């Protein structure tokens, strides 16, 4: 098995709100080596079996409307009753009906043909069928676990704790190895106030493509998708009910950039999802290590993992068709990425007890290096955008997440003004008053919210100098290591 000395670059793309069964449950027949849906026992959920889109239909926006994803909704989906013992995973249909959806739609999953980029990577490299969201919670808590090893006690997307003060893996990398956060419209990592001094490390997605082409990928590259429609594009985050082909095309774009890069021979790439977003999965999440002692007022002690989410691991050292499960009793979760970064680059830690218990991804380095490993590229591009569909997406009611991110962006807006940035940063950090969750001027459509976040980030980037790029790789540094 190859050791971490072979890896000099880690690239992580985190998409939104899909369960393992929803995305990869039909990848291959279920059995001892792959816990998918084909042939799996999926009792419960009002007797509705998992199903896929008929060939002559379009299921690319399912489920619609957006399922429940709050802590209470997830408990209802998993337990369908008292929250005790091993969850029977039997409340997805009833919870979705309570949210106004067609109960059968929550049992829908995608075929491999509907997700060609994700399917090719899962078959050509490694997939984990034992990767759980870090908590049975919404987007922000799970993304906080990825960056900080803890949700700091918050089980839902809430502005009550803003600005979120947790130490992050990026802070621990600062001054040791290069890192960047690449984004499309607004980086959710900007919720974490310890990253505000480093807005120069936040770069637009096109810079990731150029960095990869130049052989100048940072040691850690974190990529956020597009959360809002704009004048030319639909969201590509895969959050229901956004069109999944746009997210699949983003996966292809990121992979193609990495695969063609001079850095490919020393890169590990991970594609995963923050949480299941209410979509059905049949595997009960196990108990988890608490990240820290809970506060007396905390609703949840974070002693359970969330629902399984897709995770695909790619490198020239990864055998095709691999199915990864942690060797010990603790499964993979988002803190496994922190542990992997720490072990790869020799960074002391941990950030939390949860991260300390997490397994790293060394099991993915399970084959002799093959710089020509297929596919050399993935021929998947974004679908043609119907102007009417784009207009409809922009005029659609803003989602809860889109609304919250727009409110955060407005609160950060003065950071884009040279004269007030430093003082405003201190004012936010020292203030104990969170932004109003529903101010009178809150945007009501996805398009309006997107305009706000893009304008704010454009101004912040304009006054934030980009970090110096790493030196271009010398001929010796592009050789494949770990033979």
Automatic annotation (TrEMBL):
Which is one GO molecular function term here?
A: phosphoric ester hydrolase activity
Residues annotated as region Disordered? 432-483
Comp. bias (Low complexity)? 439-451
- Which biological processes are named by the entry's GO terms? phospholipid catabolic process
Name the domain of life. Answer: Bacteria
Q: Which UniProt keywords apply?
A: Hydrolase
Q: Does the keyword Hydrolase apply?
A: yes
**InterPro entries in the record, alphabetically?**
Alkaline_phosphatase_core_sf, Phosphoesterase
UniProt-recorded name of the protein: Phosphoesterase
Protein source organism: Paraburkholderia dinghuensis
